[in-house]
Amino acid sequence: MSELLILVLAVPLTAGATGVLLRHRRRLQRALAWVTLGGVVAISLLLVGATSDGSTLTVDVGGFPAGLAIVLGVDALSALLLTIGSTMTLVGVVFAAASGEDDHPLFLPLVLLLWSGVALAFVTADLFNLFVAFEVMLVASYVLLTLRGGGAQVRAGVLYVGTNLLASTAFLLGVGLVYGRLGTVNLAAVSTAVPDDPAALAGMGVLLVAVVAKASLVPLHGWLPRAYVHASPTVTAIFSALLTKAGVYVLYRLTSTFLHDVDGFLPAMLVVAAVTMVVGVLGAVGGGDMRGILTFHMVSQVGYLVLPLGVWTRGAVAAGLFYLLQYVAVKGALFLSAAAVVRSEGTDRLDRLGGLLRTRPWLGVAFLLPALALAGIPPTSGFLGKYLLIRTAFEAQAYVAGATAVGVSLLTLLSMIKIFNGAFWGDRPGADADGRAPTGTPVGTAARRVLVGMPLGIGVAALVLGPAAAPLLDVVGAAADALLDPTAYLTAVAR
Amino acid sequence: MSAAVIVGVLAAGGTYLILQRGIVRIALGFVLLGHAATTLLIAAGGVGTRAVPFAGAGADAADPLPQAFALTAIVIAFGITAFLLALAFRSRDVQGDDDLEDGR
Question: What is the domain range of residue A466?
Fold first, then answer.
């Protein structure tokens, strides 16, 4: 069973390399990517089943002696993130086939490479391999972001590459400092030694700054909204499901293994979470196009995702994981509906759109359902997630952070209404000052059904998941138990 | 001590260069920062022990792990430098130079 976990990253990596060779055989390349990602989803679900009893599956890659072997470990948290991440990646590539974005011969190989980096980040139990995982996923994302190669992409690309490369360098320096002090970068050994060793803790702090930048927490968030809007629409959807979530995963993992023991970490996380929520949502309310608003919302939502790290009770962590799982799907659906608008209308600027509800009613519903879930309107899954997050924060006497989460929800709703008003209600404005009206490219009926059906399906799922959340709550509860008491995980990955 | 000085000088030079506007200068800044990180990794394994590890390793055998780390980091930095230079090249195609502020 534990050998399976190598497959979630080795097979996509191989398929990605093969996909480059198949760049002139487009149908074969597409079939390869879809089958690979479908297989990864299946294996991830198996891993969820195998780890739901709190056990950890491990494997020593290469069979090197203790201390040199690369240790991979999967517990319930890793398995859940592998499942939702691979599912959204599969949704993204199928959507890209309908929207025509996988026309570029390197699109599918790059997505597979991106996924293998993310999968490695989710399963590695070693700080240096975490650096390698981040690099693999970032290199793929650098190229995906700049694939269209216009002037705006180049400038956004330099900003994105520069910020992330600086963070990666800080990460590497942190790894070097920790290794110099402790002589190991295995997570189990590091977790035992670091809290009592101020010098190693300082090295860990350098590393943590890099993780915070990759998760795009305030004040290290500025790169995300400026860079993501310039990627092609489906690429933005895939990025939103994978990249910052890898940073959030590392924060959960490190908090679980030792950071919760470090004086002052929990209160600091509460402050960071609250400020991130507010700054992100204010940026979103001020946006003028669908993807601009949605990308700034990613910053705000990362604040919700790390709120449990400042509370650190079982209920809060379970609520955080539930929120994370449904949020990744809901946010993906919002980006996909924005991508469908861009594909058929030629723009997603709110001052150029209007009246879409009359011409494309189902597209309106496909945006509305996930938008309500993002804002947290009952009975959607987003409501349940936010309710649990806020209640557990109040129970732990984190009143200011909890109240901030309530207030930010209102502003989230406001910005969703702004999009709905601008794009779906009212009348479509005529030609702009230059005498040009944006026009999309014609979309075939089958492709249009996919473009609307995928976000619509996720929206309906979010609607159903709200009242029918009990089974998923059991699963995230088990994952939260394993995080609150990491002994089993640490014993399993210790070498 | 000498390793610390080298890391400091490289990091200072790299920081100066990545604050410039030209993409080529930014790329060179990241080359320097990458070297700083590599030097730190090697120093983290101890600079006193330099004999061959594994094969008949004695007490002064070098720590192989930081060397593997450094090698991996160098390869990654090399790839990303190439990508940054490709971006600079593309920028020259699109707007005539590699300056970040000029294009609108």
Answer: 263-431+441-485
ipTM over 0.90 threshold: yes
B53 part of a folded domain: yes
In a domain, A1, yes or no: no
Q: For residue A22, how many C-alpha atoms fall within 13 Å in the half-sphere facing its CB?
A: 19
Establish if A199 touches chain B: CB-CB under 8 angstroms.
Answer: no
Range(s) of the domain holding residue B23 = 2-95
The size of the A-B interface in CB pairs under 8 A is 86
DSSP assignment of A291-351 equals: HHHHHHHHHHHHHHHHHHHHH--HHHHHHHHHHHHHHHHHHHHHHHHHHHHHHHHS--BTT
In chain B, residues with a C-beta closer than 8 Å to the C-beta of A106 are none
Chain A contact for B45 (CB, 8 A cutoff) = yes
Any domain includes B71: yes
In this complex, is the C-beta atom of B40 within 8 Å of any C-beta atom belonging to chain A? yes
Torsion sign over Cα A211, A215, A217, A222 = positive
Say yes or no for a CB contact (<8 Å) between A172 and B37: yes
Residue B103 is nearest to which of A67, A155, A180, comparing CB atoms?
A155
Confirm whether B32 is domain-assigned: yes
Element (H, E) at A202: helix A198-215
CA-based nearest distance A66→chain B, Å:
12
Rounded to whole angstroms, what are the CA distances from B93 to A152, A346, B60, B96? 13, 26, 53, 6
Q: Which two tokens stand for residue A72?
A: 């991979």
Question: Does any domain span residue A379?
Answer: yes
* Domain-embedded: residue B21: yes
Mean per-residue pLDDT pooled into runs of 10, chain A (495 residues): 85 93 90 95 93 87 75 92 95 91 90 95 93 93 87 86 93 93 89 88 92 91 88 90 93 92 90 94 89 91 94 93 94 92 84 83 90 90 93 93 93 91 81 57 80 90 89 91 90 86
Can you read off the two tokens belonging to residue A122? 């989710």
CATH code (residue B74)? 1.10.287
CA-nearest residue of chain A to B94? Answer: A151
Where would I find the beta strands (DSSP E) of A18-151? 57-61, 70-74
Per the CB < 8 Å rule, is B95 touching A151? yes
Q: Taking the model in full, what pTM does it have?
A: 0.93
**SS3 category, A148:** coil
Number of domains chain B contains:
1
Judge whether residue B103 has pLDDT over 50: no
